[in-house]
Specification:
The N and C termini lie close together (about 10 Å). The strands form six sheets. Strands 1, 2, 4, 8, 10 and 11 form a six-stranded mixed β-sheet that branches. The chain is about 15% helix and about 35% strand. Mean pLDDT is about 80; it is low at about 1-30, about 405-415, about 420-430 and about 440-458. A hairpin with a 5-residue loop joins strand 16 (about 320-325) and strand 17 (about 330-335). It has two domains: about 1-25 and about 430-458, no CATH class; about 25-420, no CATH class. The chain has helices at about 1-20, 105-115, 190-195, 195-200, 425-450, and strands spanning about 35-40, 45-50, 55-60, 65-80, 90-100, 120-125, 135-140, 155-160, 170-180, 240-250, 255-260, 260-265, 275-280, 290-300, 305-315, 320-325, 330-335, 335-340, 350-355, 355, 365, 370-380, 385, 390-395, 415-420. The chain has five helices and 25 strands. By secondary structure, the protein is of the alpha+beta class. Helix 1 runs antiparallel to helix 5.
Length: about 450
């Protein structure tokens, strides 16, 4: 009998190996320019009680002067600087905004922040698109922030602080939006993270306008100050938290090649992006690969360039996103990594990382005439609300500076299980075969027992 138990243990061991095969091997890009510096900052503190939502904007610090950013990492930490688990505080998203603020209005900006700065005295430094509504967001991720590679390989970098681009009389400043949900003691943690309206008791949006009757979940129901329903009798303390972020950067020089950032959102309607959408519940009863919701959008870049980097932002239930070139071939894929443990950074069931693609520079050329196709995939074993499918890419227009380094369509972070759609069938077949072998051994064991023999251990 012991050997039979061991046999099943081996089966589960091999399942783990198969999942590891599903994670494409990638030597994470760590070789940086020796001149690269690191600056660590924190946002102002924010407080949360169980079930509470914080969705605030903060004036934050960035490296001074004309520099090139080569990496931007962030996470939620407590007062002692310890990383905070997604089981306790779900990081829906964080986003940076770059602004030019009139020097005469600087104090007002510092006091009022984002909402008070939506006036002619403030100019948003927009990214390069492609939502069509003047999207101003810069860097940003969500629950996947700890294990998503944001490295921009040398000699490339994202340019900031160029005094020649700052209008006279203005100063460059930065804001940080943090949307966090305290899920300690909540009645339905997945529902709270998906911002289901019934759990928040919300019928009006943040401005007091009635929500459409068919709006059952999303950002409109988990705005700043709302609370998700708690389990009866649950009590806990208020906690103080920070968003801690690390910027890797170099002084700007003629040796640095600028890249432009484009955001391709699967909800793009042509006149703007909705940012989020809902997925239905699967009605099929087949293999796991049958229950996939696929959404697509198309986009064209405003100018020619070469693809340097790409990574997607998706939520729980994600099955990856892909970008296809004009000839229909996949030019970049970003797959989710799911946690499978209890420790911070490897939270079971959460998307703890998104794969990043690094094509060989010059190998993926994109023309302004090309129509790119972006695809976002989600599992539909159950319906979900407020999911996202956003692909961020970095494109360089200067093709004279090419470098060679390893490339991959995924990031092996060393954590979690990375989803590869077709591997589910492999796992089922392999486990089925091992299970049949174990069952045969068990039947043999029972027969030998019935004959009065002691089964030998092998």
């Amino acid at each position: 009998m012991a050997s039979t138990i061991t046999c099943f243990s081996v089966a589960f061991f091999f399942i783990g190996i198969v999942h590891s095969w599903g994670t494409s091997s990638f030597d994470a890009l760590t070789s940086e320019d020796p001149l690269t510096r690191k600056s660590v900052y924190r946002t102002p503190a924010f407080t949360l009680t169980p079930g509470e939502v914080s969705n605030k904007f903060y004036r934050v610090e960035f490296p001074k002067g004309h520099v090139g950013v080569r990496g931007f990492d962030a996470e939620v930490v407590d007062e002692a600087g310890n990383p905070v688990s997604l089981f306790e505080v779900y990081l829906h998203h964080w986003v940076t905004f770059n602004l030019y603020v009139k020097k005469t209005e600087k104090e007002a900006f510092l006091n009022e922040g984002y909402y008070g700065s939506n006036n002619p005295s403030t100019k948003f430094v927009e990214n390069s698109g492609l939502c069509g509504d003047g999207s101003a967001s810069g860097w940003g991720l969500g629950s996947e922030t700890r294990h998503t590679n944001t490295t921009v390989p040398p000699p490339y970098a994202i340019e900031i602080g160029n005094s020649e681009k700052i209008p006279d009389g203005y100063e460059e400043m930065w804001e940080f939006n943090v949307h966090a949900i305290d899920t300690r003691g909540v009645e339905d943690r997945p529902g709270c993270t998906e911002c289901r309206c019934n759990l928040y008791g919300v019928v009006n949006d943040e401005r007091g306008r009635p929500l459409p009757k068919d709006y059952v979940g999303g950002l409109e129901c988990c705005y700043d100050g709302t609370k998700c329903r708690l389990k009866a009798g649950f009590e806990s303390t208020k906690r103080t938290l920070y968003m801690q972020y690390t910027i890797r950067w170099v002084e700007w020089s003629e040796n640095v090649v600028p890249v432009k950032k484009y955001l391709i959102d699967v909800t793009n309607t042509g006149s703007g992006c909705k940012a989020e959408y809902n997925t239905p519940t699967c009605s099929l009863r087949g293999f796991p690969t049958d229950c996939i919701d696929t959404r697509e959008t198309t986009a064209s870049l405003p100018e020619d360039g070469i693809l340097i980097y790409g990574a997607a932002h998706q939520h729980v239930g994600a099955r990856g996103a892909s970008l296809y070139g004009a000839n229909g071939e996949e030019i970049c894929r970003s797959m989710p990594t799911y946690g499978f443990g209890s420790e911070t950074g490897n939270e079971a069931g959460y998307v703890v990382g998104m794969g990043a693609c690094y094509p060989e520079p010059g190998s993926v050329k994109i023309s302004s005439k090309d129509v790119l196709r972006m695809q976002s995939n989600y599992s539909t074993f159950r319906g979900r609300t407020g999911v996202m499918g956003i692909f961020a890419i970095l494109v360089a227009s200067d093709t004279s500076s090419m470098i060679s380094f390893k490339s991959s369509n995924s990031l092996d972070s060393g954590y979690g299980i990375q989803v590869v759609l077709n591997d589910n069938l492999v796992i089922i077949v392999l486990f089925g075969g091992i299970a049949m072998f174990c069952l045969a051994r068990y039947i043999r064991f029972r027969k030998e027992q019935s004959k009065g023999y002691q089964a030998l251990s092998t």
